[in-house]
Design goal:
Number of strands: 5
Order of helices and strands: EHEHEHEHEHHHHHHHHHH
CATH superfamily of the largest domain: Hypothetical protein af1432
CATH class of the largest domain: Mainly Alpha
Shape: elongated
Radius of gyration: 33 Å
Number of helices: 14
CATH architecture of the largest domain: Orthogonal Bundle
Largest sheet: 5 strands, parallel
Structural class: alpha/beta
Strand content: 5-15%
CATH topology of the largest domain: Hypothetical protein af1432
Bound molecules: fe (ii) ion
Distance between the termini: 60 Å
């Protein structure tokens, strides 16, 4: 475990200097690591970069020189301030190294007061950098949260239109909500990444939004539809896309919503897409959507018994539905849905 003492890496090929620096740092309540050349220094940086707070580095060393240590540190561990310790007091040389990424420089022989001052300044600078990064991260998180909350609100608002339509017809009440719940269970079973999961839930909630553009009379018509009426109903996926198009952040959902009535074998609508051409989320929604339609009451029939509905889903595997989506749905059904629906009175 890390204590409160700051850890300083000392890099110098002269043993005397390393010793003086070590003793001085110890007396000032610092901890230290020492390296006798650039090679060793780079190795220590690579190994302990998470615990090294700052480095003091000589320039002229055999094999790997101080500039290479500075360049390596600046490239890989920019938060670690490196103070150059050099016998070459030329200002232009020190400035060159500061351009390489060194924090500051100190000339040999050094004074303890100067060393402490420089180290404190370097550590303060580092703290500021860390605070800045933490602040930026928090800010980004907050913006992300606020954007997500805003998106959620917009989706809820848009969903309320579809809810309003469903509420007018007792046979479709709660359909989108249930499809969305089933989709959430599918997302868990399929272990979808968070982004895909969100797309799926939004798309499930909004999949029938295009019904806004279809007359209530036709939507709620009891009994069989004639050819023209059926063709009109079939326009709702594309109408949904038109409605949502202006909402940029829902762009991902449009192909899903448009394809929720496509069949895996290519005989669905509106485009007759087949197999993998149908977005995967749409293939998931298709199963949930059909299952809910079968297990809800309709004006022309009672809800189908769960056994029959499940058999229909199994029978549709490979023709109407993606077999993978069917398998996942069967798993969801066995593990969660069956018990829940039976306890809620499903036949
Ligand atoms: Fe639909």
């Amino acid at each position: 475990m890390r204590n409160d003492k700051k850890l300083i890496l000392i890099v110098d090929d002269e043993e005397d200097i390393r010793e003086i620096l070590s003793e001085t740092l110890e007396s000032l309540d610092f901890e230290y690591l020492t390296a006798c050349d650039g090679d060793e220094a780079i190795g220590l940086l690579d190994q302990y970069h998470e615990t090294i707070d700052a480095a003091i580095c000589d320039l002229k060393m055999p094999k790997v020189s101080g500039d290479q240590v500075i360049a390596h540190g600046a490239q890989h561990y920019p938060l670690i301030p490196i103070i150059i310790l050099t016998g070459f007091a030329q200002l232009d040389m020190a400035l060159d190294h500061m351009r390489l990424g060194a924090f500051d420089y100190m000339t040999k022989p050094f004074r303890v007061k100067e060393l402490l001052l420089l180290l404190n300044r370097a550590l303060e600078f580092r703290q500021l950098q860390e605070d800045k990064i933490a602040y930026q991260n928090t800010l980004e998180e907050r913006i992300e949260e606020a954007t997500q909350a805003l998106h959620n609100r917009v989706v809820q608002t848009v969903s309320s239109f579809i809810l309003a339509i469903e509420e007018k017809d007792r046979y479709t009440q709660g359909h989108s909500k249930r499809v969305s719940e089933y989709s959430a269970l599918m997302a868990d079973t399929l272990k979808l990444p968070e982004n895909d999961r969100l797309d799926l839930l939004y798309a499930a909630q909004l999949h029938d939004i295009g019904k806004i553009g279809i007359s209530e009379q036709l939507l709620n018509k009891p009994g069989k539809l004639n050819v023209v009426e059926y063709e009109t109903i079939k326009t709702h996926p594309s109408k949904g896309v038109k409605i949502l198009e202006p909402l940029d952040f829902l762009g991902n959902l449009l192909p899903i919503i448009e394809a929720h009535h496509e069949w895996f074998d290519g005989t669905g609508y509106p485009r007759g897409l087949a197999g993998e051409k149908i977005p995967f989320m749409a293939r998931i929604i298709a199963v949930c959507d059909t299952f809910d339609a079968m297990t809800s009451e309709r004006s022309y029939r009672k809800p189908l018994p769960l056994k029959i509905a499940i058999q229909e889903i199994k029978d549709g595997s490979g023709s109407q539905f993606d077999p993978n989506a069917v398998d996942a749905f069967l798993k969801v059904f066995e593990e969660t849905l069956a018990t829940r629906m039976i306890s809620q009175g499903s036949p």
